């Protein structure tokens, strides 16, 4: 496994729980978005599953049968799974609209492109005020709903509402029987409080089931979707952010 983020952690734990030998090459801190307590909880459970954690190691090359680290060490690998980061489609960049360094559309707080008010961005492809939310379903779902509300407001001739979204934490599966629940402030910064173990696995399962129920309910009753509100957002605008950079 290459990548010590949440996707890498969950994938490594699933494979290890099936009895497969797994080395997780993090290229930095394990679970960088977590607090110290959250990282300790994740590491403890991964080691219980006999996952080898290489936090400081970085990958220099991936071969068909091995992974070469930046220090020249070679790790034999029957299969290498790459989870070292997210990317976004290049549609916005190819269109000539302004984007951030990862290709996310620069938008204002209503998710409207700063270059063309006929274009609205949502999910992981949006960078409102040049300050994108963490790539996750916890952010993408509400962003999609808020983008739709912006479109409906413009059709009705009303002023769209500004982005209003809050976070509560991160819930990570560690195999089928474990997990870590990292609590966070409403703006998505972690606090040094986390729960781990079987109870967390049950919570994560309920979250996944609840997400599917919400999608089905929205399809049956459009407009029923709701999300937590009240997270703090930066006061500066996307135009100001572009000027700074």
Report on the architecture of this protein.
- This protein is α/β, with parallel strands linked by helices.
- The protein contains six helices and ten strands, in the order αβαββββαββαβββαα.
- It has helices spanning 6-17, 36-48, 91-95, 137-155, 198-220, 238-244, and strands spanning 23-25, 52-54, 59-62, 66-69, 74-76, 105-107, 126-128, 169-174, 178-184, 190-196.
- The strands form four sheets. The protein has a three-stranded antiparallel beta sheet, with no helix packed on it. It has a three-stranded antiparallel beta sheet with strand order 8-9-10, with helices on both faces.
- A hairpin with a 4-residue loop joins strand 4 and strand 5.
- The longest helix has 23 residues, at 198-220.
- It is globular, with a radius of gyration of 20 Å.
Topology:
Elements: H1 6-17, E1 23-25, H2 36-48, E2 52-54, E3 59-62, E4 66-69, E5 74-76, H3 91-95, E6 105-107, E7 126-128, H4 137-155, E8 169-174, E9 178-184, E10 190-196, H5 198-220, H6 238-244
Compact summary:
This protein has helices spanning about 5-15, 35-50, 90-95, 135-155, 200-220, 240-245, and strands spanning about 25, 50-55, 60, 65-70, 75, 105, 125-130, 170-175, 180-185, 190-195.
What are the main properties of this structure?
10 strands; disordered C terminus; 3-stranded antiparallel beta sheet; single chain; 245 residues; alpha/beta
What composes the largest sheet?
Answer: 3 strands, antiparallel
Overall morphology: globular
Which spans have pLDDT < 50 for at least 5 consecutive residues? Answer: 236-245
How much of the polypeptide forms β-strand, as a percent range? 15-25%
Q: Percentage of helical residues?
A: 25-40%
- Which strand order do you get reading across the main beta sheet? 3-4-5
Distance between the termini: 34 Å
Radius of gyration, CA atoms, in whole angstroms:
20 Å
Q: Structural class of the secondary elements?
A: alpha/beta
**DSSP, total strands:** 10
Q: How large is the count of helical segments? A: 6
Order of helices and strands: HEHEEEEHEEHEEEHH
Q: Quote the average pLDDT.
A: 91
């Amino acid at each position: 496994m290459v990548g010590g983020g949440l996707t890498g952690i969950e994938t490594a734990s699933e494979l290890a729980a099936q009895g497969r030998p797994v080395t997780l090459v993090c290229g930095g801190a394990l679970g960088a978005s977590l607090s110290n307590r959250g990282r300790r909880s994740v590491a403890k459970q991964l080691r219980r599953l006999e996952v080898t954690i290489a936090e400081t190691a970085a990958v220099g090359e991936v071969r068909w049968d091995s992974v070469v680290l930046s220090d020249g060490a070679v790790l034999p690998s029957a299969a290498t799974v790459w989870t070292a980061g997210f990317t976004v489609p290049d549609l916005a960049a190819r269109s000539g609209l302004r984007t951030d360094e990862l290709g996310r559309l620069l938008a204002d707080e209503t998710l409207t492109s700063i270059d063309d008010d006929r274009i609205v961005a949502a999910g992981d492809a949006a960078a409102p005020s040049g300050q994108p939310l963490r790539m996750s379903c916890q952010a993408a779902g509400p962003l999609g709903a808020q983008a739709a509300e912006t479109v409906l407001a413009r059709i009705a001739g009303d002023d769209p509402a500004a982005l209003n979204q809050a976070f509560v934490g991160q819930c990570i599966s560690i195999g089928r029987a474990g997990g870590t629940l990292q609590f966070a402030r409403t703006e998505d910064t972690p606090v040094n409080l986390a729960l781990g173990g079987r109870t967390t696995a049950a919570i994560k399962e309920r979250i996944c089931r609840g997400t599917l129920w919400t999608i089905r309910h929205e399809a049956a009753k459009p407009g029923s979707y709701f999300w937590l509100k009240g997270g703090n957002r930066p006061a500066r605008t996307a135009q100001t952010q572009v000027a700074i950079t």
